[in-house]
Design goal:
By secondary structure, the protein is α/β, with parallel strands linked by helices. The chain has twelve helices and eight strands. It has a single domain, classed as Rossmann fold (3-Layer(aba) Sandwich), CATH 3.40.50.1820.
Length: about 325
């Protein structure tokens, strides 16, 4: 997730302040946030008490099990969206909410390793021994940790727009500032609704990228998908300041899992050069370099879907 430049943020906050003061957007906010909450509720997630704590997850479909791990500002709902976009038929989807997202709490001593253990405990509770993994962005850290800690339980990994070792594409703001930004669903909704063109950087749209009406709809859906931000804020803080930086410390050469790394050359968030490093360091990895489309791989859904499905079927057949 990208934080806008200081001038953009200042203008946005000023604009939101005026909106809040006027009260003109209150009814629209109530309508939209109600619809967002109803959509999340309709997806049928469950709460499971495991040996590693409380885990929210959704389970849909039939076939070979795929653990789908969402990125920053996500939750099980975004995991389901990731699966819908990039998996063909014939897979069973297990999509958990990671630490701090929706109804999965953050343990006091949360780490990516503990998150990986929580995946194992979830699979144990569901009676699933071995899975493939599909993950995106900030979800890559705990997914790689899972492959390191439980190599016999992972048949294949797909790392989409991955958080990877190397220089930061985006420098996070001070934690106190970020917490303030995430403290109000109303303010976050107003920023996304009335300053959407400036907020596109939050979902990794490259500067100057030409957005067709179809792409605009995808970007808008991605921004709406971050709400209610108050239910995702703890996870976003954990990802940004704890989990994401830790990928730089991992012994990637010890990852035995067949891996497909997918990255857009123009991704401003998860830099392509870092994705190349990830693919180079994991011994049994291949890289799918997408020419453009930014963090969301705009315009390449069908090509990526075909490659992901081909790759997974080649590893589980």
């Amino acid at each position: 997730m990208k934080v806008p430049k200081k001038g953009t943020l200042t203008a946005g906050v000023l604009g939101v302040t005026l909106l809040v003061a006027s009260g003109l957007s209150a009814s629209s906010y109530r309508r939209d946030i109600r619809a967002i909450r109803e959509r999340i509720d309709s997806l049928g997630s469950q709460i499971l008490e495991t040996d590693c704590g409380t885990v929210e997850y959704a389970r849909v479909g039939s076939g070979y099990p795929v653990l789908v791990i969402h990125g920053n500002a996500g939750g099980f709902d975004q995991g389901l969206g990731l699966a819908q976009g990039y998996l063909g038929p014939g897979f069973q989807i297990i999509a958990p909410s990671r630490f701090g997202y929706l109804r999965s709490p953050v343990p006091a001593d949360a780490t990516p390793a503990r998150q990986a253990d929580a995946y194992a405990c979830l699979l144990d509770a569901l009676g699933i021994e071995r899975v493939a993994i599909l993950t995106s962005s900030a979800g890559v850290t705990s997914s790689v940790q899972f492959a390191l800690r439980y190599p016999k339980r992972v048949s294949a990994m797909v790392l989409h727009s991955p958080n990877a070792p190397g220089k930061e594409g985006l420098v996070p703001p001070p934690k106190a500032v970020f917490k303030l930004m995430l403290s109000s669903d109303y303010a976050w909704w107003a920023l996304n609704t009335y300053f959407g063109s400036r907020m596109q950087s939050f979902v990794g749209v490259p500067a100057g990228f030409s957005l067709t009406p179809e792409y605009q709809a995808e970007v808008r859906a991605a921004l709406v998908g971050t709400l209610p931000v108050s239910a995702r804020a703890d996870g976003m803080i954990f990802d940004t300041y704890v989990s994401n930086p830790e990928i730089n410390q991992y012994p990637l050469g010890e990852v035995d899992t067949p891996t497909l790394v997918i990255s857009a050359v123009d991704d401003p968030m998860a830099l392509h050069e870092n994705a190349r490093t990830l693919a180079d360091q994991i011994p049994n990895a291949q890289l799918m370099a997408v020419p453009d489309g930014g963090h969301l791989l705009l315009g390449h859904t069908e090509d990526v879907r075909a490659e992901v499905t081909r790759f997974l079927r080649s590893q589980i057949s």
